C-alpha cells in the first residue's frame, strides 16, 4: 500500500457527494488570490489543484487570518 500524499497546511476529506475536499488549516484573506478550499473529483485531480495552489503561494506573500488572541502583541512576540 502506498502512503497517501500530504500537503502541509491542508486537511483533505471525502466529499459528501463523492470526490475530495481540501481545507486550508490557516485561512488566507479573500483578496490574496489564493483559495481556502479546493475540490477534486479524484485524489489525483485534487493533488494537481493543491500543487497549483502551492506554486501560487510561492509567488505571493499572503498574510494568514488568525483567530483573535487575548494576548497583547508584546506577549506574542516574546
Q: Can you describe what's shown?
A:
- By secondary structure, the chain is of the alpha+beta class.
- The protein has helices at about 45-60, 75, and strands spanning about 10-15, 20-25, 35-40.
- A hairpin with a 5-residue loop joins strand 1 (about 10-15) and strand 2 (about 20-25).
- It is globular.
- It starts with 9 loop residues before the first strand and ends with a helix.
- The relative contact order is 0.19.
Chain-wise SSE layout:
Elements: E1 10-14, E2 20-24, E3 37-40, H1 43-59, H2 73-77
Antiparallel strand pairs: 1-2, 2-3
- Our measurement of the CA-to-CA distance between the termini, rounded to an integer number of angstroms, reads 45 Å
Largest sheet, if any? Answer: 3 strands, antiparallel
> What sequence of helices (H) and strands (E) makes up the elements?
EEEHH
> Can you give the helix content as a percent range?
25-40%
Instruction: Give the overall form.
Output: globular
Strand tally is 3
Structural class: alpha+beta
Order of adjacent strands in the largest pleated sheet: 1-2-3
In DSSP terms (H or I, runs of 4 or more residues), the helix count works out at 2
Low-confidence stretches: 61-65
- Portion of residues in beta strands equals 15-25%
Please state the CA-atom Rg, rounded to the nearest Å.
15 Å
Mean pLDDT: 80
